[in-house]
Specification:
The chain is of the alpha+beta class. Helices cover 21% and strands 30% of the residues. A hairpin with a 4-residue loop joins strand 4 and strand 5. The chain starts with 27 loop residues before the first strand and ends with a strand.
């Protein structure tokens, strides 16, 4: 049975060596490791936006994908491959819209979505303190409704075929 490799803490020297290949990029927000998976989450760079669009269009085939200048886009990666998940937040005057969240099927149920959501809420509160979160979910998607309820979202309005949910800001 092989030994598990562990990473040593980065050197505090001024001329520290560059990060290892598997280290999160400089724009990393958080890294998450669990017994079943390991992945990192970081703010998307301009060069990663095409991969995000492809992922979002694959997961949500009938959606229009727009990224505003003030939006937060976080990507989850397993290693240095294509993204395995994303969360997209868009600020409005009185709330932050959860514009989209998705995880590829092979990584669903492994904590990626929860980690993306937790990281997005934390990053949102740094950028837009005290704004509540809002989203819409299709009424035909009860699993998503239960998931958002577990994150503290509550039903605020019913539309034609959709529910509007809101969660108070983190304080």
């Amino acid at each position: 049975m092989g030994r598990k490799k562990t990473k040593s803490a980065p050197s505090q020297k001024k001329n520290a060596p560059s990060p290892a290949k598997n280290s999160p990029p400089q724009n990393a927000v958080s890294s998450f490791f669990s017994p079943h998976s390991d992945f990192s989450i970081h703010a998307a760079s301009n060069s990663e936006i095409p991969a995000w669009r492809s992922l979002a269009e694959t997961l949500f085939q009938n959606s229009s994908i727009e990224l505003g200048a003030d939006d937060i886009l976080l990507l989850a990666f397993a290693g240095a491959s294509e993204p395995i998940g994303f969360v997209h937040l868009r600020p409005h005057q009185s709330f932050v819209l959860l514009a989209g969240i998705g995880v590829i099927p092979a990584w669903q149920g492994r904590g990626v979505g929860r980690a993306l959501m937790e990281t997005a809420m934390q990053e949102s509160q740094k950028k837009w303190p005290n704004l509540p979160f809002q989203l819409e979910v299709e009424q035909a998607n009860p699993a998503a409704l239960r998931l958002y309820a577990s994150w503290g979202f509550a039903l605020t309005k019913m539309g034609t075929g959709t529910y509007q949910l809101r969660r108070a800001a983190l304080n």
